[in-house]
Amino acid sequence: MSQLLTPVYTIQKISSTSTPASWESIDAIARQLGEGYIVLWQHHAIFTGVVEGKVTWLNDAQPVIGDEHMVRVRAFNETQEYHFWRSNGKIQGRLRTDAQAGDQEVVDTQMMLRSVVGKALRKAHPDLVSEDVALITRNYIAYDSATQQAGYVDSRFVKFQPFNPNNA
Questions:
Q1: Distance (Å, rounded) from C-alpha 33 to C-alpha 27?
Q2: 37 DSSP 8-state letter
Q3: Is the pTM of this model over 0.90?
């Protein structure tokens, strides 16, 4: 007995570069990104913001100012992401930039958000009226040279949108 399998994802090919990025501040990253979103993890909370040259935080509470409280920051739009994280007491980072055609294989997936991130976004964006908000992530595929085994080598946030159960 044979069953037809429906693919659960589609592999796309794009052009993408990843370069190291130096940490300055959230304001500096917002100016460089221009427009998009930001998610900030601090030791005590997660904060979501809209970037329009500067950050407008969407949570009722505001983040504590100061790098010592930062755990991770992801500032992103549909073409690029600044990702910074704390490791061994230092802030490390990278800038991932995507373009249209190329040879980098990627898979876009959606992750449903029911947390404080989703609630804050729904308050600020009428286009996210769905009860469930999804975060679209892009996962970058590479192949081991010895075994040709495929695996994800990087992942970035792309955008927020209403959750679509048909694409889960």
A1: 10
A2: E
A3: no
Residue identified by tokens 């910074």 is: 84
Nearest to 143 by CA among 151, 135, 155: 151
Quick: pLDDT tens for 89-143: 899 999 999 998 789 999 999 988 776 666 677 666 666 655 678 899 999 999 9
Residue 96 to residue 44: CA distance in whole angstroms: 27
The Cβ of residue 135 has, within 10 Å, a number of other Cβ atoms equal to 22
> If DSSP codes are grouped into helix, strand and coil, which group holds residue 119?
helix
Q: Give DSSP secondary structure letters for 11-30.
A: EEEEEEEEEE-----HHHHH
Q: Residue 120: in which H helix or E strand, if any?
A: helix 116-124
